[in-house]
Design goal:
Blueprint (H helix, E strand, L loop, with lengths): L4 H8 L4 H8 L3 H9 L6 H11 L9 H6 L1 H21 L5 H13 L4 H30 L1 H27 L16
Helix pairs in contact: 2-4, 6-7, 6-8, 6-9, 7-8, 8-9
Subcellular location: Membrane
GO molecular function, one term: DNA binding
InterPro entries: Cro/C1-type_HTH (IPR001387), Lambda_DNA-bd_dom_sf (IPR010982), MamF_MmsF (IPR019109), TransReg_Diox_bact_type (IPR050807)
């Protein structure tokens, strides 16, 4: 039986169940029951645990269902990297880095909370960077010595962060897009 998400993140942090209990204020027995899938934890409990593990609460939410059927786990994880991949492919043409992940999000947002969360992170990041990208192009036209390096820097940052997060999503790690304005509530 695969480990629950709580167990995976707890081990990544290098904590025992007892240490996590001490840090979070949640009893060791509750942590054991959550990891076994014997209980559905309260959202407040998940928030306390997620805070100690430095992860978002949503990442710990579907641990019991994820353990029941391995086929369910494979299907969403194969869709999640597509959001990042489509954004990367879309960087070749203006606005496609937003349109392609947005269309996929509209189709898949109700299937899995992880898909919804990562799609919103991708969209927030690419919307923010695209909004910054257009003024840098205008600046490049009027004052090339500043506009050109700024445009290249923004574009390279978009490509680099999308590639990093594509690999993180494939390896089931937490995705982080810095400097994102929240257009879609996460």
């Amino acid at each position: 039986m695969p480990s629950s998400k709580l167990a995976v993140y707890r081990r990544k942090k290098g904590l025992t169940q007892e240490q996590l209990a001490e840090l979070s204020g949640v009893t060791t027995r509750t942590i054991q029951r959550i990891e076994k899938g014997a209980v559905v934890p309260h959202i407040q409990t998940l928030k306390m645990l997620a805070s100690c593990l430095d992860v978002e609460t949503e990442l710990l939410m579907d641990a019991p269902e994820g353990n029941s059927d391995p086929k369910e786990k494979t299907k969403p994880s194969s869709v999640i990297p597509l959001f990042h991949l489509l954004a990367l492919i879309g960087l070749g043409l203006p606005i496609l880095n937003i349109i392609l992940p947005f269309v996929l999000w509209l189709l898949k947002k109700d299937e899995n909370p992880d898909s919804d969360l990562q799609a919103k992170q991708v969209l927030n990041f690419h919307l923010t960077m695209t909004i910054l990208f257009f003024p840098s192009i205008v600046l490049m036209i009027y004052y090339f010595p500043v506009g050109f390096p700024l445009t290249v820097l923004i574009y390279a940052f978009m490509v680099l962060m999308t590639l990093i997060n594509l690999f993180r999503s494939v390896n089931l790690q937490q995705v982080k897009y810095p400097f994102s304005y929240t257009f879609f509530k996460i």
